[in-house]
Amino acid sequence: MTAGAIHSAEDARRIARRRLPWMVFDYIDGAAGTETGAARNRAALDALTLRPRVLQDVSQRSMASSVFGQATERPFGIAPMGMCNLSGPGADLMLARLAARYKIPHGVSTVASTPLEQIIETAQGHAWFQLYFSGDGAGTFKLVERAKSAGYQTLVLTVDVPEVGRRPRELRHGFKMPFKIGPRQFVDFALHPRWSIGSLLAGKPQMANFLMDGYEFDRTESRAKADWSTLARLRDAWPGNLVVKGVLDSEDALRLKQEGVDAIQVSSHGARQLESAPAPIACLAAIREAVGPDYPLFFDSGLRSGEDALKALVHGADFVFFGRILQFAIAAAGEAGLERLWDVLSDEMSIAMAQTGMRDLSGLRGA
């Protein structure tokens, strides 16, 4: 199967489902509970429409944008995702190279499978570090200093995981990090030899930011102690841009703005945490109204196409982020698959812009 077989995000997902071990696919693809939250996200995005316009000269179009004063070649970036190298050996650095090429932010997860220092170097500085608060916070603030030393200018605090959501598909496979290989996992890997051999040759994916002495992380540890005083400490400790990710309530958004946060990312963590959470796209307009027209507002969760991304921009976001579909593209056809899907997403947005009379992305809210 070649990258040319990818004509949509769903194509990438379909091929990835066949190639990945069941445990890995369901870890990447799964959502909380019975996954009605994920269905709600999709239904809400599908229900939105764009306004077609005719007889506009849209022969020349630009998808250029900017974020925190830095020019980008696309209005969408890469959401932070844990353990990306599960989708294919070297996936983190594939994403970093993509970020460098298009000058877009690459969200680097606390639980990335490549050290944060290596990713920002490969991304040529186009990387943001995503932070989880956990335990008593001692390890969290050590990571803050490490990110600062590595040259990160933007920190993304994820706040929608006080406790890790229950994802039954993942739990049924006994997914743990590091891997615990039992009879079920052995059979799973044996039935997917291409992935298993490639991963074996590249080295078992691990939470790379915690392989150094003095750094520990328990993925299942409670993160429930974080509060507004934690945010204040972080604001004092971080001199660069501070983004808070995982916001769905307009009152929370307004307070975050008042507390000195530089931007908010409207997100439900891809419906992986609270099954009953509202669809983030349905929250976007109220949050935009609360924070005002000029405050930086980002968006992720459930985006599957360039048209989806354009919908989020029209409805109040300044910049959006794609997540798991990029991992599916890598699983389907490696770096060529990632580049192919990126071209598909770009084409989808450019064509949607033409259909709706847009030459560029300036002044597009309410289009």
From TrEMBL:
Record domain FMN hydroxy acid dehydrogenase: where = 1-367
Q: Which InterPro entries match?
A: Aldolase_TIM, Alpha-hydoxy_acid_DH_FMN, FMN-dep_DH, FMN_HAD
Which CDD domains does the annotation name? alpha_hydroxyacid_oxid_FMN (cd02809)
According to its UniProt record, which cofactors does this protein need? FMN
Q: Could you tell me the keywords of this UniProt record?
A: Flavoprotein, FMN, Oxidoreductase
Query: Which family would the database say this protein is a member of?
Result: Belongs to the FMN-dependent alpha-hydroxy acid dehydrogenase family.
This chain belongs to the protein called Alpha-hydroxy acid oxidase
